[in-house]
């Protein structure tokens, strides 16, 4: 038996909580401005609670009761709430520090933050590489992954894909278990679950909560889950319930005492009825026929709670924990562990992006097919153009088409980037990494694919169209096309980061590309372009530098035959007057002069292109840094 097998066979001691005995909150109040009256409005009002190690708390209530808001406050995820928050949150009776709190807690989103083109084992592996500190060895990382696969009953699906829209993968319940397991890879002591059973049937919901309960009981973890109308069997697995209604507490205490409590309040739960279903319907005012009667009933529920023994015991427990006031030294020592290094995070993200890019054809596979179709179309439309003056305009048109439409078709990258961005926002909220690592990995991943696209397109379109047939001209064309694609993709990253809605991002990117086409110098030569458009947009238009570069590449070192004419003394008529006119040839430099382009400035243009690309990426970084949702 190998060392790894021996380690996996043992108990997963790293996950076991030995230091955090309680997690409590007192006086949680969240206030926003009412959109209509502009008056302060409480989403949550004076919410208290406490959960002990090894316990599962169900956070329940009808829609709009404040469940998600409370969960976000407790998990220190209030940046995107846009509200006034007053709260006192305690770990072992001491005030929780947001930075250290994140190291002992994990948050599982309502929607699975999973990459569909990865396998289950790969998903946990990347979660480990992104979150575990540098002190954790590769052997220990493998041990944690395999132990979690076994603990969550996923060993049999370890090599199966999560699943995409095109390729079917594991079931919904298994996906949710993978999401929870991916958060447990860092051995958190507190686990927050946002609607873990959303979208699952009763059997799958029971399966998910059952696995979470087993892990929590075995390893003494604290679990808080918002959940909407669970089945009777699922509800019974929770130890405690916090029931909210209109931002106030309707009940907080053991699940076992729910029925006796409501019976004592004069609202008995009917026999053989799901208690969870009854109490949610009971405190729900959205569909009431007699609203005043229901409001009165709800006020009685809130009043009964505040006068109840359970409300008093909750505050007493919190006070007792605060009196002990022992944020243990072991916890602080544990929190001194370093996080994963920046280089390691970038490498892990790049690796994950590469796997996704070649398995998920939406990212680059479809784009390669689109560009190859465009190359064949371009090559056969401008097929075998002869270097004659009658084809000069056709060559110019082909250059414009090759550069402008290649960049325009970069809009096909928007869906893939928005998917990556959504995953980034969720992982960023969990404190795994920031926009720098994300954008660097995104950039590195795109380079080989964009270079491949530039080469494949050029091999077909360049030679079929009969551009200048030399090796240096061909590779210079590839260089310009490659820079064009990088700039276009950088523009997509910027616009999609700023407006993360597919249709709007598509429209914004298409508009920007249309603007660059108009001011690039082909439709209207730069020297005759309206001063506003020229000085405001032309000089920052990456397509203009690509067009200039390709024009110089084609016309800077090539001559074109003049039209034959028996009436002319020289036997030909040249549309451009150059020093080679007596040889019935036109120097390509004359075409460049007509556009105001000069040779010998390729290096400067390349530098400007690199500056524009860096500018787009930097602006994209600023947008992602400032946006929290």
UniProtKB/TrEMBL annotation:
<dbReference type="InterPro" id="IPR052215">
    <property type="entry name" value="Plant_ABCG"/>
</dbReference>
<dbReference type="InterPro" id="IPR003593">
    <property type="entry name" value="AAA+_ATPase"/>
</dbReference>
<feature type="transmembrane region" description="Helical">
    <location>
        <begin position="361"/>
        <end position="383"/>
    </location>
</feature>
<dbReference type="InterPro" id="IPR013525">
    <property type="entry name" value="ABC2_TM"/>
</dbReference>
<dbReference type="InterPro" id="IPR043926">
    <property type="entry name" value="ABCG_dom"/>
</dbReference>
<keyword id="KW-1133">Transmembrane helix</keyword>
<feature type="transmembrane region" description="Helical">
    <location>
        <begin position="439"/>
        <end position="465"/>
    </location>
</feature>
<keyword id="KW-0813">Transport</keyword>
<dbReference type="Pfam" id="PF19055">
    <property type="entry name" value="ABC2_membrane_7"/>
</dbReference>
<dbReference type="GO" id="GO:0005524">
    <property type="term" value="F:ATP binding"/>
</dbReference>
<dbReference type="InterPro" id="IPR027417">
    <property type="entry name" value="P-loop_NTPase"/>
</dbReference>
<feature type="transmembrane region" description="Helical">
    <location>
        <begin position="605"/>
        <end position="626"/>
    </location>
</feature>
<keyword id="KW-0472">Membrane</keyword>
<dbReference type="GO" id="GO:0016887">
    <property type="term" value="F:ATP hydrolysis activity"/>
</dbReference>
<comment type="similarity">
    <text>Belongs to the ABC transporter superfamily. ABCG family. Eye pigment precursor importer (TC 3.A.1.204) subfamily.</text>
</comment>
<dbReference type="GO" id="GO:0016020">
    <property type="term" value="C:membrane"/>
</dbReference>
<dbReference type="Pfam" id="PF01061">
    <property type="entry name" value="ABC2_membrane"/>
</dbReference>
<feature type="transmembrane region" description="Helical">
    <location>
        <begin position="502"/>
        <end position="524"/>
    </location>
</feature>
<feature type="transmembrane region" description="Helical">
    <location>
        <begin position="477"/>
        <end position="495"/>
    </location>
</feature>
<feature type="domain" description="ABC transporter">
    <location>
        <begin position="25"/>
        <end position="271"/>
    </location>
</feature>
<dbReference type="InterPro" id="IPR017871">
    <property type="entry name" value="ABC_transporter-like_CS"/>
</dbReference>
<dbReference type="Pfam" id="PF00005">
    <property type="entry name" value="ABC_tran"/>
</dbReference>
<keyword id="KW-0067">ATP-binding</keyword>
<keyword id="KW-0812">Transmembrane</keyword>
<dbReference type="InterPro" id="IPR003439">
    <property type="entry name" value="ABC_transporter-like_ATP-bd"/>
</dbReference>
<keyword id="KW-0547">Nucleotide-binding</keyword>
<dbReference type="GO" id="GO:0140359">
    <property type="term" value="F:ABC-type transporter activity"/>
</dbReference>
<protein>
    <recommendedName>
        <fullName>ABC transporter domain-containing protein</fullName>
    </recommendedName>
</protein>
<feature type="transmembrane region" description="Helical">
    <location>
        <begin position="395"/>
        <end position="418"/>
    </location>
</feature>
């Amino acid at each position: 038996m190998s060392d790894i097998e021996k380690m996996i066979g043992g108990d997963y001691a790293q996950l076991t909580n030995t230091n955090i005995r309680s997690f409590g909150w007192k006086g949680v109040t969240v206030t926003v401005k009412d959109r209509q009256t502009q008056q302060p409005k409480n989403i949550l009002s004076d919410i208290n609670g406490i959960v002990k190690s090894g316990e599962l708390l169900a956070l329940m209530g009808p829609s709009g009761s404040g469940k998600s808001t409370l969960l976000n406050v407790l998990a220190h995820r209030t940046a995107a709430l846009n509200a006034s928050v007053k709260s006192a949150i305690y770990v072992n009776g001491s005030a929780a520090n947001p930075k250290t709190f994140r190291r002992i807690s994990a948050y599982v989103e309502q929607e699975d933050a999973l990459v569909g083109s990865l396998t289950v084992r790969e998903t946990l592996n990347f979660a480990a590489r992104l979150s575990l500190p540098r002190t954790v060895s590769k052997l220990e990382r493998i041990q944690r992954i395999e132990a979690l696969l076994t603990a969550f009953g996923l060993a049999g699906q370890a090599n199966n894909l999560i699943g995409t829209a095109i390729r079917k993968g594991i079931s919904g319940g298994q996906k949710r278990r993978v999401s929870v397991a991916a958060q447990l890879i860092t051995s958190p002591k507190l686990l927050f679950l946002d609607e873990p059973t959303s979208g699952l049937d009763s059997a799958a919901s029971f399966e998910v909560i059952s696995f979470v309960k087993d892990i929590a009981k075995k390893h003494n973890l604290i679990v808080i889950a918002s959940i909407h109308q669970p089945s009777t069997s699922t509800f019974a697995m929770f130890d405690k319930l916090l029931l909210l209604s209109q931002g106030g507490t309707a009940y907080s205490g053991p699940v076992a005492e729910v029925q006796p409590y409501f019976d004592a309040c004069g609202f008995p739960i009917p026999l053989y009825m799901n208690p969870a279903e009854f109490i949610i319907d009971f405190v729900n005012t959205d569909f009431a026929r007699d609203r005043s009667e229901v409001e009165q009933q709800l006020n009685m529920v809130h009043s009964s709670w505040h006068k109840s023994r359970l409300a008093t015991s909750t505050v007493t427990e919190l006070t007792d924990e605060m009196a002990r006031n022992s944020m243990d030294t072991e916890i602080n020592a544990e929190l001194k562990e370093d996080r994963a290094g920046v280089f390691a995070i970038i490498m892990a993200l790049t690796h994950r992006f590469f796997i996704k890019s070649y398995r998920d054809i939406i990212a680059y596979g479809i784009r390669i097919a689109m560009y190859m179709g465009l190359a064949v179309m371009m090559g056969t439309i401008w097929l075998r153009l002869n270097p004659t003056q009658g084809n000069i305009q056709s060559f110019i048109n082909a250059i414009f088409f090759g550069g402008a439409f290649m960049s325009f078709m970069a809009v096909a990258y928007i869906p893939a980037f928005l998917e990556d961005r959504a995953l980034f926002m969720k992982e960023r909220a969990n404190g795994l990494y920031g926009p720098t690592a994300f954008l660097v990995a995104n950039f590195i991943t795109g380079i080989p694919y964009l270079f491949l696209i530039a080469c494949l397109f050029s091999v077909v379109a360049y030679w079929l169209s009969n551009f200048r047939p030399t090796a240096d001209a061909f590779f210079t064309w590839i260089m310009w096309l490659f820079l064009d694609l990088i700039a276009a993709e950088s523009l997509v990253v910027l616009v999609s980061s700023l407006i993360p809605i597919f249709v709007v991002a598509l429209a914004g990117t298409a508009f920007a590309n249309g603007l660059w086409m108009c001011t690039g110098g082909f439709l209207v030569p730069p020297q005759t372009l309206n001063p506003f458009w020229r000085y405001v947009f032309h000089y920052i238009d990456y397509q203009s530098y690509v067009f200039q570069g390709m024009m110089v590449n084609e016309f800077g070192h090539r001559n074109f035959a003049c039209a034959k004419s028996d009436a002319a003394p020289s036997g030909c008529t040249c549309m451009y007057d150059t020093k080679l006119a007596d040889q019935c040839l036109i120097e390509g430099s004359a075409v460049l002069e007509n556009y105001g382009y000069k040779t010998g400035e390729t290096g400067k243009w390349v530098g400007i292109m690199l500056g524009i690309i860096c500018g787009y990426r930097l602006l994209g970084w600023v947008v992602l840094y400032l946006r929290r949702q």
